[in-house]
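In this supplementary section we document a worked example of the pipeline. Step one takes a protein sequence of length 154 as its only input; no multiple sequence alignment statistics are reported here. Step two produces a three-dimensional model, which step three serialises into structure tokens for compact storage. The input and output of this example are shown verbatim.
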Amino acid sequence: MSERTNSLLAFAGIAVAAFPIFVGLYEYKANNEREFEKNFLSQQSIVYDELLGDLGGISTSISNPYDSTSQANYNLAKFNFNQLYYGKLNLYQNPTIELLTDSLYNLINSYDSIRSSNSLRREILDRLIDTIQTKVYNLSVECKKSLKKTYNLQ
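The serialised model returned by step three reads:
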């Protein structure tokens, strides 16, 4: 055999040996990306569940602001909501959910200041409660849409 044929055979042997290595590396990378996406989606779902649970607690307890049990539930739910708001929620929310969450955060703080003021007018408080509850519902719808889009569900 000629020297050229020997070098072509050597190159072909190297290419045949290298091909499975490159395919394996590609599959490894693709598998890691899928696993990351799966973990991200799982965490996003958990955070949305916590967020809506806390906001549901706030929403139901503000309906009766003078009941001690409702007030205790409100304080706990607000504390948990603030932890999510300043913490891990920022890792998982999309821009629409971020806007709704920011709006709710501001409304809840407004509720606290109106409720604690001495010149409390019940109709203003009732209107604010209705607004908060409507926004909580809208946020839950947006979380559902976000999860559907993330999971590619119809």
